[in-house]
Amino acid sequence: MSDKLDQVVARARREREEREKGYRERALKLYPWVCGRCGREFTRSNLRELTVHHRDHNHDHNPSDGSNWELLCLYCHDNEHSRLLDARYGGGGESGSDRKREGATHNPFRDLADMLKK
């Protein structure tokens, strides 16, 4: 019993360390737990609602200094990506803003048609 418990604890520690290497954990350590758009503050109880947004929309660009990240709540993050899609398809989306954006590099549905064929 003790050996099994030790294994579970050791595995949990390894998994925690692995997660902390991820960009979300690093961003949460670098920045205050506040949405960069609406200013909503977060605590441990609702931290799952705070997301990491890649400023250049490239999920593979994760510099260790966090310069490509900003923390956004779920709602502001969704709005940011909706504005990008609106701008791409001619809906404006960036009215009142001088910021220029490149297209998003991540498309979670890119391979959906192939997966559905299988």
Q: Low-confidence runs (pLDDT<50, min 5 residues)? A: 93-99
Helix- and strand-based class? mainly alpha
Q: Write the element-wise H/E pattern from the N-terminal end onward.
A: HHEEHH
The count of DSSP E runs of length 2 or more, i.e. the number of strands, is 2
**Overall geometric form:** extended
Strand content: 5-15%
> Could you tell me the radius of gyration in angstroms?
18 Å
Secondary structure blueprint with pairings:
Layout: H1 2-21, H2 23-30, E1 50-54, E2 69-73, H3 74-88, H4 112-117
What would you note in describing this structure?
This protein has a domain at 21-93. The protein is 42% helix and 8% strand. The chain is mainly α and 118 residues long. The model is unreliable at 93-99 (pLDDT under 50). The chain has a two-stranded antiparallel sheet. The protein has 4 helices and 2 strands; from the N terminus they run H-H-E-E-H-H.
Q: What's this, in brief?
A:
The chain has helices at 2-21, 23-30, 74-88, 112-117; strands at residues 50-54, 69-73. The chain has 118 residues and is mainly alpha-helical.
Annotation keywords:
118 residues, mainly alpha, two-stranded antiparallel ribbon, 2 strands, extended, endonuclease activity, hydrolase activity
